[in-house]
Amino acid sequence: MEVKKHTIKLIVHNKPDVLARIAGVFSGRGFNIESISANITREPEVTKIRIVTKGDSSTVTKIQNQLKKLVDVQSVSHVRDSKYGQREMVLMRLKLTDENRDNIMKMIDTCECKIVMKKGDYCVIEATGSVEDIQDLVNRFEPLGIEDLSRSGTVAL
pLDDT by residue (tens digit) across 129-155? Predict the structure, then answer.
């Protein structure tokens, strides 16, 4: 079977230790969590968690079945690209020098990034897109001097 990335969405009770038990299901089966994002929903007692992992469909189904058995898990679903929007956000801090300032500003305009903060010798930019778009953006800015970056991980409805 083909090993590829899968996004799993969980709706859980917002209680201590839920995330640790979910992570235990993955580690118990020897799978890595590629990215994870968790936020409370419109109901503060409920949290939505999105996990991206790699594996074949059969193994991901087994993981989903194990997750469904956890006490505080209300629902588990496999997010598919065609049905749900999946996005990621990146924040990048770029060092501004006399040599690269014009190139960075041109790249920001070309890539439709948003400047979040600009100080004398650096700026912080924000961009959203698919995981592939964000990776491409990081690759394009890398030669211009990324000092630091933070990616949100996949967010999906």
Answer: 988 899 999 999 999 989 999 999 888
DSSP assignment letter at 32: -
Task: List the alpha helices (DSSP H) in 2-156.
Answer: 18-28, 57-68, 101-110, 131-145
The SS3 assignment for 154 reads coil
pLDDT of 84 higher than 70: no
Q: Which domains does the chain have, with CATH numbers?
A: 4-79 (3.30.70.260), 86-156 (3.30.70.1150)
Where does the pLDDT of residue 156 fall: very low under 50, low under 70, confident under 90, or very high at 90 and above? confident
CA–CA distance, 108 with 1 (Å, rounded to integer):
41
